[in-house]
Amino acid sequence: MIWNEEAECMDQKKREELQLKRLQTVVKRAYENVPHYKNRLDQVGVKPDDIKTLKDIEKLPFTSKEDLRESYPFGMFAVPPREIVEIHTSSGTTGKPVVSGYTRKDLDTWSEVMARGLTMFGADPDDIIQNTHGYGLFTGGFGVHYGAQKVGCTVIPISTGQTKRQIEIMEDFNSSIVIVTPSYGLYLAEVAVEEGLDTEKLKLKAIGFGAEMWTEGMRRELQNRFHAPAYNIYGLTEIMGPGIALECQEQDGLHVMEDHFYPEIIDPETLENVEEGETGELVLTNLTREGMPIIRFRTKDLTALRRGKCSCGRSLIKMDRITGRTDDMLKVRGVAVFPSQVEKALLKIDGIEPHYQIIVTRPQHLDEMEVRVETSPELFSDEVKELVGAKKRIENYIHDEIGLRVKVTLVEPKTIPRSEGKAVRVFDKRKFDN
Amino acid sequence: MKIKQLSIFLENRKGRMRKALDVLEKGQVSIRALSLADTSDFGILRLIVPEPEGTKKLLEDHDFIVKTGKVVAVRMEDEPGSLGKILGILDENDINLSYLYAFVAKEDMAIVLLHPENIEEGIGALERGGADLISAQEIYEL
Ligand SMILES: [Zn+2]
What ipTM, to 2 d.p.? Predict the structure, then answer.
């Protein structure tokens, strides 16, 4: 089923007209009501009226997370405080958090986009959704909650934690859809097995997962352990929360709710927009938000956009799984290198685990990049000649991917530290060499 | 006539060979022969032990990568020129050798372990050439 066929399957030309109209309105509102945007646009000499086509969005300055922090707490609001009915914040682990404000209509939009996504997972009013996302300042809990209510599902607002209780409820209440972060989902499955629960008997319809970096391997694990398909939910607090893009049953990219959030991909180095299908940094613009319209927000997430008719029938553009963050970008001999590119190269070689480390040094005025890769039984040969050959092969694959010669060092298995969530993969030693 | 050999991957880092040997010592594995092929990047430690399968498992349990391969063992008089004679046999038969290592087993007797590119052809040539091939059992009992 499709929640909002008109919006989700709209003819592209018609959608672009809608997007342009909305963009013009939102830029005007931001310019007139948010001093930050007035200043920024004035600085570059652009007036809201200069937005005549969708491509004109490229004339507008970017908004960074720092911009949002500087306007803490309510500086980015475009409406009087009394019209704001709810507030959320980012985690704020580094410095002040980013505050996000919502009007009544913004909450309706949020419910709508999440309802579309949950419907993609197969949700309907008969479903019982166990929402393990935290309720509070974090957007995860409420975003899913609003969408599920809109669909008419029964929501169990259990939040994160109390893992044994979660399992009991899954069993007793017959939860049919569970919403998790990938790491909590895997933990939940582990405890379920320890508690003697047969996850196959749960008859789960779907798992929705988000709010963390993930890999296809993690998805497979979730699916195997819960015997249900797992779909990704993408979102960020600065723009709204979960619901910006979600996966349909194809599990091949996330449909971006582009009638509400306008996506662009830029080269994080040149800041120029890239061709469709090329990987770069995702930039998002709120097209309909009242409380806090954000223009050209640099998400720092790396992905690519792909237009094309999806087998699910939706015409909404798709974005790839987030493969990395621009924060991870390295400049080696003037070339931008992302760890995700190295990972991509390694995945092409049989018998290699995607556990690696990148070490950049500058021994004599010239950058050197070393990639440490764990050897595996498939890769290991008793003959020096062949092992050197395997090493060369990996070096060539990486060269093809990043355009730089690197030195590959084979290391023993399990010697590269594993860490939950974001592994530290890059060691840039150059700054200490001076 | 083929002897099972264990090859272990070692990264080029201080203490790695020691770690492997410690594991073997704790497992009370007696090493009959050992050689280390070393490059600037990594090493391959090759071992002949009485219980290759059990030893392989022991090392793998300690996260080492181990491969089982086969070599040929030839008994030599412990005197100058005896290794040359064996290599001569292989040469005359156009048999390429990947590597070899030798050790003195007891007084007046040395053993060379050979890894010809094609082990069957290697054995055939050595037998025809009159080399004194010995069995795995004989090595383990040394
Ligand atoms: Zn689709």
Answer: 0.86
